[in-house]
Design a protein that fits this description.
Length: about 210
């Protein structure tokens, strides 16, 4: 798409997990994650509405490798809802790593959705936890406010942004991912797979200069 998109009051910017542990020096740092912050701040200024998600794990969360004997970070295990990547400890409730990046414009955020706070279930998507049935309540909130289009940005393109975008489509929203306002972990070609799947289900991949 090369034409400019006209933003209205039925559009919302969804800022995904721009938290210290996913940025430079964090325990699960996304390569160049910090670079999204100035781009996102500029986007927040363009939108009538902006909200954010925040990973918010208890210290003994089941998605942490440290919660499983003899398991290394980035290995996989089976949890009650299926296969789960085991991560380094990250975004622990109330600790510095779970805080938003200090330069992110938080003052304009109308809602913060905390996810992953249930010890037994990880949560990538802003809409559902990883069991794909436990709702965060975001869809109902957006529908009640008359939101039609969701524009996603943040960390990481191939995990929480990707899962949120897929679920946004499933919930009936017109969905856009602002590629230059995201960064990826890119484990085992996960970025290419995520981008392909998003396009297949109708997510539009755009850049910030189209807004």
């Amino acid at each position: 798409m090369s034409h400019s998109l006209e933003l209205t009051s039925t559009d919302i910017l969804l800022v995904v997990d721009v938290q210290n542990d996913f940025c430079d020096g964090g325990t699960l740092a996304v390569p160049n994650g910090d670079q999204v912050v100035p781009v996102i701040n500029g986007l927040i200024d363009c939108f009538h509405h902006s909200i954010a998600t925040q990973d918010w794990h208890p210290a003994d969360h089941q998605s942490f490798a440290s919660s499983h004997e003899n398991q290394e970070p980035f290995s996989t295990t089976e949890l009650s809802y299926g296969s789960q990547i085991l991560w380094p400890d990250h975004c622990i409730q109330g600790e510095t790593g779970s805080g938003f990046h200090k330069d992110l414009d938080q003052d304009s955020l109308e809602l913060i959705i905390r996810k992953g706070f249930r010890k037994e279930i990880d949560s990538y998507s802003a809409f559902f936890e990883n069991d794909k049935s436990t709702k965060t309540g975001l869809a109902g909130y957006l529908q009640n406010r008359g939101i039609k289009r969701i524009f996603l940005c943040g960390l990481a393109t191939d995990f929480c942004v990707y899962y949120s975008a897929i679920d946004a489509i499933k919930q009936g929203f017109e969905t856009f991912v602002i590629a230059d306002a995201c960064r990826a972990i890119d484990m085992d070609d996960s970025l290419a797979r995520a981008m392909t799947h998003m396009r297949e289900v109708g997510v539009e991949i755009i850049s910030s200069d189209e807004l």
